[in-house]
């Protein structure tokens, strides 16, 4: 079986198990308290800080948006509650079930639509979407899949459309090697050889280049404008602190790291917002 196929199956199996446990009431609680959820999440949790950077929430009303790798569908629900017409796609069928339950329990202006199965095989309408979003999604694709997705995205976007990804950034080998040696919840340290090997066997991340350079290269090939924003240069160190200080530290870190010069920030960052605009059709 080719690597991309194997990778997709691994992701499907891994996330089918994860999304069994999704709590629909908790997502409903977030959309019912939309403003307070967004104020909290976009100051505290990296992927929300990144994806909603520069007031993304105000760019959604009336827009047609596709979310790739929509996962537990919290973000799809938030974007929909903010006034976008949202389509979600995920290789896990469980995401479709979550969307169905959300549509039944919340009166979205336009119900969220689930695009079933492999997006690369899905029928799309050309020039259809204003925005295509991926939150912690692209780093689950092999390089070959990433190119195939990008080519399909270029077709699916309107001529002035935008892609917005929030992804990990690996721009410094030394920091990355240190990272692998610090155990985090659910992932042992590379020093624990046997445990690490077992973890790796089940891990749904393919071996790939997650550098900003790669995103810039792909972006410049398929789009006229590419903007990379580093997120998490200081925040990444929250893992070294006791849990009780984590939230306070992260909130402060996000405020401070904005003042680090961009070149340095890009080298040290843990994650990145990637914006591609104006597809080359
Ligand atoms: C780290 S999770 C992120 C989920 C969600 N966006 C979030 O922020 O919580 C990655 C997601 O990508 C999905 N995924 C992986 N490969 C995929 C593929 N080829 N097509 C669609 N979804 C895929 C997984 O099923 C999973 O839901």
From TrEMBL:
This protein's source sits in the domain of life called Bacteria
Q: Which residues form the Methyltransferase domain?
A: 65-161
What keywords are assigned to this protein? Transferase
Q: Which Gene3D superfamilies match?
A: Vaccinia Virus protein VP39
Pfam families xrefs: Methyltransf_25 (PF13649)
Q: Which SUPFAM superfamilies match?
A: S-adenosyl-L-methionine-dependent methyltransferases (SSF53335)
Which intervals of the chain form a coiled coil? none
Q: Write the protein's name.
A: Methyltransferase domain-containing protein
């Amino acid at each position: 079986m080719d690597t991309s196929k194997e990778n997709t199956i691994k992701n499907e199996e891994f996330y089918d198990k994860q999304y069994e446990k999704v709590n629909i009431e908790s997502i409903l609680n977030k959309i019912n308290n939309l403003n307070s959820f967004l104020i909290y999440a976009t100051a505290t949790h990296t992927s929300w800080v990144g994806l909603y950077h520069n007031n993304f929430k105000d760019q959604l009303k009336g827009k047609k948006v596709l979310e790739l790798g929509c996962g537990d569908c919290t973000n799809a629900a938030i974007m929909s509650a903010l006034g976008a017409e949202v389509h979600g796609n995920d290789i896990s069928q469980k995401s479709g079930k979550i969307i169905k339950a959300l549509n039944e329990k919340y009166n979205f202006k336009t119900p969220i639509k689930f695009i079933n199965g492999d997006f690369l095989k899905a029928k799309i309408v050309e020039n259809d979407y204003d925005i295509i979003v991926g939150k912690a999604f692209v780093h689950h694709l092999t390089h070959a899949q990433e190119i195939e997705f990008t080519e399909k995205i270029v077709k699916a976007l309107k001529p002035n459309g935008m892609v917005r990804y929030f992804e990990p950034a690996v721009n410094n080998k030394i920091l990355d090697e240190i990272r692998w040696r610090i155990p985090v919840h659910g992932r042992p340290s590379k020093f624990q050889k046997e445990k690490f090997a077992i973890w790796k066997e089940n891990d749904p991340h393919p071996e790939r280049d997650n550098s900003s350079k790669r995103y810039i290269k792909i972006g410049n090939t398929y789009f006229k404008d590419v903007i990379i924003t580093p997120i998490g240069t200081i925040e990444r160190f929250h893992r070294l602190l006791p849990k009780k200080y984590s939230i306070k530290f992260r909130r402060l870190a996000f405020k401070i790291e904005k003042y680090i010069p961009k070149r340095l920030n890009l080298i040290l960052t843990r994650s990145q917002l990637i914006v591609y605009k104006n597809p080359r059709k």
